[in-house]
Amino acid sequence: MDKSPDAFRTISEVAEDLDLPQHVLRFWETRFTQIKPMKRGGGRRYYRPQDVELIKGIRHMLYDQGYTIKGVQKLLRENGNQFLIAVGHGDVAAVEAIAQRKQAEEVPLTPGAQPRAEDELLVGQPTAKPNRRFFGLGKADDEGPVQAGSGKLSRDNRALLQEALFDLLECKRLLDQVR
């Protein structure tokens, strides 16, 4: 007899459904404070449907995507439980929506302002004014990629910098995976 989708699950049911040993689930409870099964008398665990969905997401990131426990903890901290639940479901649209909402929260717009297409790729603001030393070697400052008088990079160079940032983030992810 199958349980309702809203029913609580025992540790053995969750372990069987997700193809995980029970001791791994107990260990993950110590590493991910977001997993909080209800415990009854005798210490028997009952997992809520939300806990099971979160564990699916954690399992996917650890086993299928190759993240470390620290990497998944960071994802949870930065994006919240709903992000990993969506990842566990394979719901790409939800993952993108959560990422866009998070990005919108980080970059407050002035009232009535609309983001320009070229600004959407920019992750942060430069701390130093770019000059010909880094881009367009041998060119005068007004001939280089920085628009004269504005102190802003051209659209192409912003895209190149964004691509380099993504490459660096991927390198960092791979290094974290090795540690």
TrEMBL record:
<dbReference type="Pfam" id="PF13411">
    <property type="entry name" value="MerR_1"/>
</dbReference>
<protein>
    <submittedName>
        <fullName>MerR family transcriptional regulator</fullName>
    </submittedName>
</protein>
<dbReference type="InterPro" id="IPR047057">
    <property type="entry name" value="MerR_fam"/>
</dbReference>
<dbReference type="InterPro" id="IPR000551">
    <property type="entry name" value="MerR-type_HTH_dom"/>
</dbReference>
<feature type="domain" description="HTH merR-type">
    <location>
        <begin position="10"/>
        <end position="78"/>
    </location>
</feature>
<keyword id="KW-0238">DNA-binding</keyword>
<dbReference type="InterPro" id="IPR009061">
    <property type="entry name" value="DNA-bd_dom_put_sf"/>
</dbReference>
